[in-house]
Amino acid sequence: MNAPLESAVSTPYQRAVSASKRARFDIDADVLRGRALDQSHKFLPDGLSFAASLDFLLEGERRFMSQVQGRSYANIFGLVERFIAAKVLELGQDHTLGDQAALEALVRFSDEELKHQELFRRVEELAAAGMPAGYRFLPQPNEVARVVLERSTWAVLGLTCHIELFTLAHYKRSIEHDPVVSPLFKDVLLHHWKEESQHAVLDELEWRRIDASASAEERSAGVTDLIALVGAVDGILQLQAAADADYFLSHLERPLTESERSRVSQTFLRAYRYQYIGSGIELTQFPEILFGLVSEADATRIKTALGPLL
Ligand SMILES: [Fe+2]
Ligand SMILES: [Fe+2]
Question: What is the pTM of this model?
């Protein structure tokens, strides 16, 4: 009857549960609706793909570049959601006999990430159906998850919070209002954004909860782990950017010069570093949260490590 009163007394976990119920979608009925990915549309906007910076490419070639990147965008989300779902299930254990709203919020969170993995698998199938053969997505979700989950929960939550915050920023700032992005691709990211909005809140809550019980040494070790994880992310980006540039170049219908080919390769890597590292630092409150938790010496270590990637 009285929403303001209800929100005044509800906890952030209760609000996340209510918002998750409102955002809930079905992959086929609400998102895909039997549609194909139309190859006459871009998948990722220029603000994320940097395709417009390659002035020697023809319009169709820039569109193809955005499609290759969009396909990897879907695959990379499918990949990170593997370790995120695993970590969130583990965090839920801390609440099983405690705050039942927190438990429900985290159960819904991991359930949503399982669904998102399925959603992005379906996007990969739709992309494959309309694109030439030869595309390869190289990183293996379970291998990456094993490497990530060996690190401390503090660091995994930091990385997850970063990922989910830039996901929101990409949709709101670049994708939502882009007139030439594929309507189906946009719908996928709209529905993803609706559920990710709660995840980003929960990441921060859980990260602060874990941080509050960490000693200064544990926190500093968490920073070391987070720096290592960002390095691992960059390794994945280098691998996939090289594979995607090769795939893109091998399907152009005209030869490019050696220097143009090299600019294409550099642009793939620059775009991926922006999408998965730089945009979270530049466009979101992630640095404020992170630097509000760590010591000055650890903040300096983080900035030094990030420098070459931004
Ligand atoms: Fe997700
Ligand atoms: Fe998420």
Answer: 0.95
